[in-house]
Amino acid sequence: MVQPSTSSPRDPSSGALYTARVDNVDGTSGQVRVHEGPATLATEVPSAELPEGAAPTPEALLPTGGPTAPARGFNPEQFLAMAWSTCLGETLRVVLAERGLPHESHVSVEVGLHRDPSGGYRFAPRALVTIDEMAADEAQPLLEAAHARCPVSKLLSGSSEPIVELQEPDRV
């Protein structure tokens, strides 16, 4: 369900142990700004970290870390926020284009980390969306259409079920 921005009953930062915040500009063709994210990114695996005899690869290496200092990498909350903001932003761009609407849109996502009363932790995600120069009553159905089509929105709303499988390690 898409909530109007006038009230927020599911504020992910309310009572959160940590809240990741990101902003997406231009969907999959743009970029994501991670608030309080690492200052730099490693773009390839350092030779010193490769197994003996292995050649460097063109793969990107994103550093990971926890939500507290001295972490120097991205944490799961930030990755989830980046994925949803990018996917929802791109889906909204497609919805606007299909209707011939040249409006710019912006998607910010917050993912709060909370203790789960049944044990462990849980995420509380929230997307904050704006469509430039469009009244809320016109923008709301477009946002709902984008949310209904976005694969990450579907996963977060329980419309898709993740699969977790155990793999046997490679034997030498």
Structural class: alpha+beta
Low-confidence stretches: 5-9
**What is the number of strand segments?**
4
Average pLDDT rating: 85
- CA-based gyration radius: 19 Å
Shape type: globular
Largest sheet: 4 strands, antiparallel
- Beta percentage is 15-25%
Strand order of the largest sheet: 2-1-3-4
* Topology order in helix (H) and strand (E) letters: EEHEEHH
Helix percentage: 25-40%
Distance between the termini: 50 Å
Report the total helices: 3
Multimer state:
single chain
Could you walk me through the main structural features you see in this protein, from its secondary elements to its overall organization?
- The chain is 25% helix and 20% strand.
- By secondary structure, the chain is an alpha+beta fold.
- The chain has a 4-stranded antiparallel beta sheet with strand order 2-1-3-4, with helices on one face.
- α1 packs across α2.
- The protein is globular.
- About 3% of the residues have low confidence.
Entry keywords:
single chain, 172 residues, alpha+beta, four-stranded antiparallel sheet, 4 strands, 20% strand, globular
Write the layout of secondary structure elements.
Elements lengths: L17 E8 L5 E4 L41 H23 L6 E11 L5 E11 L4 H14 L1 H6 L16
Antiparallel strand pairs: 1-2, 1-3, 3-4
Helix pairs in contact: 1-2
Outline:
The chain is an alpha+beta fold and 172 residues long. Helix content is 25%, strand content 20%.
